[in-house]
Write a structure and sequence with these properties.
The chain has seven helices and no strands. By secondary structure, the protein is an all-alpha fold. It starts with a helix and ends in a 23-residue tail after the last helix.
Length: 237
C-alpha cells in the first residue's frame, strides 16, 4: 500500500474502535441510569434510558456498514481481519446490553412505588455494580488491546450468577410469606435476570477481545455460579 492508503486504512480501523467506545459509553450510562431510576422510582429517568436505546442501534448499524466497506476495499488479513470482525461481534453484544437496560427501564415505568425491602434492592444494586465493572473493564481491554483484562473478566463471570441465584431465593421467600408482594417481586426477578444477562454479554465481549489479540479462544468451560432450579427468562426487545 502507498503511504496515503495506509493512513486511510488506519483511520478506518480507528473509526471502528471510536464507535465501539461510543457504544460502550452509552451502554454504561444506560445501566447506571436504569438502576438509579429503579431505586428512586424515577419514571422520567427510566424513559430517558428507553430513548437512548436508539443511539446504540444507529451506532451498531454504522459499525456494520463501515466494517463491510473496509473488508471490501482493503481485503484485510490476520490481525486486522480479526479486529474488524471482532468489532461487529462486540457491537452486537453492547447493543444487547442496551436492550436489557431498556427492558429494566420499561419495568420501572409500570411498577408501583412500593419497595418491599432495601435488602433486595441493595442486592440488585450490587449486581449492577459488578456488571458495570465488567463492562468497563472489558471495553478498556479492547481499547488497550489487553488479552489479560479480557481473561480477568471472563474468569469472574460466576460472581454475578451467584448473586442472581441468591436474589431469586430471597424474592421467592418474600412472595411465599406475603402474596401482596408477588407483583413487585416478579418485576425484581426479571430485572435481576436482565442484569445477569448483561454480565453474560460482557463475558462474550471478553472472549472476543481475547480472540482479537491472541487469535485463540479462551479454553475450558465458562466459569458459572450455582445454577438455580428455576429459570427466570427475561423479555426480549
Amino acid at each position: 500500500m502507498t503511504q496515503h492508503i495506509v493512513r486511510a486504512y488506519d483511520e478506518e480501523l480507528g473509526a471502528l474502535s471510536v464507535k465501539i467506545n461510543q457504544m460502550g459509553g452509552i451502554a454504561e450510562a444506560m445501566l447506571t441510569d436504569a438502576i438509579d431510576a429503579l431505586v428512586r422510582h424515577d419514571v422520567g429517568k427510566a424513559r430517558g434510558v428507553i430513548e437512548r436505546d436508539g443511539q446504540l442501534d444507529a451506532l451498531q448499524n454504522e459499525i456494520e456498514e463501515l466494517a463491510v466497506l473496509v473488508i471490501a476495499k482493503r481485503q484485510p488479513m490476520a490481525n486486522d481481519l480479526r479486529h474488524i470482525m471482532g468489532t461487529i461481534r462486540i457491537a452486537s453484544d453492547i447493543e444487547r446490553i442496551g436492550d436489557l437496560m431498556k427492558n429494566i427501564a420499561k419495568r420501572v415505568t409500570v411498577m408501583e412505588e412500593r419497595f418491599i425491602g432495601t435488602r433486595s434492592l441493595a442486592g440488585i444494586q450490587h449486581m449492577a455494580h459488578l456488571v458495570l465493572g465488567q463492562v468497563k473493564a472489558v471495553l478498556d481491554g479492547f481499547a488497550q488491546k489487553s488479552s489479560d483484562l479480557a481473561r480477568h473478566v471472563w474468569l469472574h463471570d460466576g460472581e454475578v450468577d451467584q448473586l442472581n441465584n441468591s436474589l431469586f431465593r430471597e424474592l421467592l421467600t418474600y412472595m411465599m410469606e406475603d402474596p401482596r408482594s408477588i407483583t413487585f417481586s416478579t418485576h425484581l426477578l426479571f430485572i435481576a435476570k436482565n442484569i445477569e444477562r448483561a454480565g453474560d454479554h460482557a463475558t462474550n465481549i471478553a472472549e472476543t477481545v481475547f480472540f482479537i489479540e491472541t487469535g485463540q479462544q479462551l479454553s475450558g468451560p465458562r466459569p458459572k455460579g450455582e445454577s438455580s432450579v428455576f429459570a427466570v427468562s427475561a423479555p426480549g426487545k
